[in-house]
Write a structure and sequence with these properties.
Strand order of the largest sheet: 3-2-1-4-5
Number of helices: 9
Radius of gyration: 20 Å
CATH topology of the largest domain: Nucleotidyltransferase, domain 5
Low-confidence stretches: none
Order of helices and strands: EEEHEHEHEEEHHHHEHEH
Structural class: alpha/beta
Bound molecules: 5'-O-[(R)-(carboxyoxy)(hydroxy)phosphoryl]adenosine, zinc ion
Mean pLDDT: 95
CATH class of the largest domain: Alpha Beta
Shape: globular
Strand content: 15-25%
Helix content: 40-55%
Number of strands: 10
């Protein structure tokens, strides 16, 4: 059984192949040119996906020692994401499936992340808690099986990754902000500035917009506009901000660990690449004697391996989509309870 996965929801074009349960290719092309605009420009993103998706498919097949006709199932990200970008991968995937007369599976991007731990040798055990921390989402989920996902909490405003990107912008560090904040934070004191972490009534929900404003107020209060902030202070702000985000994620995850009888904890999504967050959640899991699964870096950010894997599980469960599948109006092929 050979499964082709295609991802194009934002600024990564990716094509992967899973052949007889083994990942044989996971090619990722990152659109670095958005850096000069300070964020992703949707139209430019769509065009870049269009230019690269066919060469990536050719390389992925070659790497897997397969011909296109050997593909049995085609899976593609159907949302959420930038609509123009999504449509490139989705329409291409449907075209390939139609030409081969093979099944097409629409995959929810978040579900791709949720199960990305299964790409590792050590896999999550059901039921498990998934903490999805990406540029667009911050979710705490109880994952009971491949078809039952219960949402426990979500962000009520900004996603954690978005907060990383916005704070990086305030500090003049550029886009994408996550890796830059991590680098600066590693040189600073996380306890230098106490930034507030919202604790909501709905105890598994998150809020990061107040934290973002607190960083802005701190900068406005302490530094003269248009004058560079001293390097040492940039390190301390980055470290203190990162510390506050980690505290919020850790706190809600700990509450869920105490209240749900789970076997494992899985930290996934682009922000799961953050070293300090990985360390904090590993410690938390150890404290409660839970197995911790955090994907390696290539599976934290957007990638097609997770889409191919999720597609294979949906296909096994008998779930496929028609060639007329459309992500409009706002559908994103999710299976949340
Ligand atoms: O999952 P992802 O690649 O795309 C979405 O589905 O949103 O996540 C991208 C997010 C960006 O906000 C980026 O700044 C953040 O992940 N990120 C990080 C790190 N690497 C990427 N945040 C914190 N620390 C990192 N090392
Ligand atoms: Zn993502």
């Amino acid at each position: 059984m050979n499964i082709l996965g295609i991802e194009s929801s934002c600024d990564e074009t990716s094509v992967a192949v899973i052949s007889n349960d083994k990942l044989t290719a996971n090619l990722i092309s990152s659109q670095d040119f958005h850096t000069k605009y300070g964020g992703v420009v949707p139209e430019l993103s769509s065009r870049a996906h269009l230019q690269i998706v066919i060469p990536l498919l050719k390389d992925a097949l070659e790497k897997s020692k397969l011909k296109l006709r050997d593909i049995d199932v085609i899976a593609a990200t159907a949302g959420p994401g930038l609509i123009g970008a999504l449509l490139v991968g989705l329409t291409f995937a449907k075209g390939v499936a139609y030409s081969l007369q093979k099944p097409f599976v629409a995959v929810n991007h978040i579900e791709g992340h949720i199960f990305s731990g299964f790409l590792m040798d050590e896999k999550p055990e059901f039921p498990y808690l998934a903490l999805v921390v990406s540029g667009g989402h911050t979710l705490l989920l109880l994952v009971e099986s491949f078809t039952k996902i219960v949402k426990l909490g979500t962000t009520v405003d900004d996603a954690a990754g978005e907060a990383f990107d916005k704070v990086a912008k305030m500090l003049g560090l550029g886009y994408p902000g996550g890796p830059k904040i991590q680098k600066y934070a590693s040189l600073g004191n996380p306890e230098k500035i106490i930034f507030p972490v919202a604790d909501l009534k709905d105890k598994y929900n998150f809020s990061f917009s107040g934290l973002k404003t607190a960083v802005l107020r701190h900068i406005q209060k302490n530094y003269v506009a248009n004058n560079p902030i001293p390097e040492e202070e940039l390190y301390n702000i980055a470290a203190s901000f990162q510390h506050a985000v980690i505290k919020a994620l850790e706190r809600n995850a700990e509450r869920a660990i105490k209240n749900y009888d789970v076997k494992s904890l899985s930290l996934v999504g682009g922000v799961a690449a953050n070293k300090a967050l990985r360390d904090a959640l590993t410690k938390l899991a150890e404290k409660y004697d839970k197995k911790i699964i955090i994907p390696s870096l290539e599976y934290c950010g957007d990638n097609a391996a997770m889409i191919a894997f999720r597609g294979s599980k949906l296909y096994e469960a008998g779930i496929t989509s028609g060639f007329d599948y459309s992500p409009f109006p706002g559908l994103s092929a999710d299976h949340f309870a």
